[in-house]
Amino acid sequence: MPPLLFLGAPPLPLCLAGRASRRARLAMAFAAPGSSSSSSASFDAAAFEAERHRLDAAARDGMASAAASAEADPRAWKWAIRKRVWDALEAEGIARDPRPVHHRIPNFDGAPAAADAFLDTSQCTQSLIKQCFNYHQLGRLDVFQNSQWVKVNPDSPQKQVRFLTLSGDKKLLTPQPRLRTGFFSVLDSQMVPIGCIPEACTSVGAAKYGRPIGLDERIKVDLIVIGSVAVDPSSGARLGKGEGFAELEYGMLRYMGAIDDSTMIVTTVHDKQLVDDIPVEKLLVHDVPVDIICTPTQGFIGKSYLQKNWARSEF
């Protein structure tokens, strides 16, 4: 599963171009490249949230319909794994708001602990699954602490990661929900009023305090944190909720020159989201695997990091 390759400033890959062009037309209508920070005085948080919830509900209805009619689809195996994980999180009392977790990046009990694994080595233990080690032994704290720019998805289970990023005086790059008011927003602690960092970690707070940027912005992202529905520690293969936003955002960042093959990708999940039946051979070229997995109890580090071999297929 080779990484996406970009030389100079090429167009987005064909697998991403269609989705990018449709969302770009809407996004660019709201945010021009390099536009300035949103004015918190004029920002209508209630209207923003109402529209976000409306679009999210419509998208979940669409995904539910797609999943129900996917029996004849060769990609139906993805929906089967997603449903199994979503069902388990709900049935075992692990799921947390927003509920139900179906057709979402699921929030879970222990999400802050999984995020804190970036900083607290006591939460990370050795594992029998292929090249997994204690963070302290490998000095893996550097992967977060030495990052200046961290891209984090806007979903609920990664809220603590966004908080750690902003409170650690790092620059937070977060995609606008559904890329509908711009592509990405940039935030740092200096842009946020005192005491408002928790609010800035929410979708409405990022839109309120962040500076929207376009695809021509020159930045360098040091670390990517993404949410997952399921992830396989033996291969680094992951499944999102099925809309392709993580892949689209990854392709956009590659196009911008903001990331390259060496950029680490991390996901935070519950232990119940760890699976062993994602068939790597069925994944597509644009599917984004991960290098590091953090759960509330364990940390998994890919073989590729240890060998300084960044080919995604050699996790």
Automatic annotation (TrEMBL):
It comes from the Eukaryota. Gene3D superfamilies: NagB/RpiA/CoA transferase-like (3.40.50.10420). InterPro entries: FTHF_cligase, FTHF_cligase-like_sf, NagB/RpiA_transferase-like. This is 5-formyltetrahydrofolate cyclo-ligase.
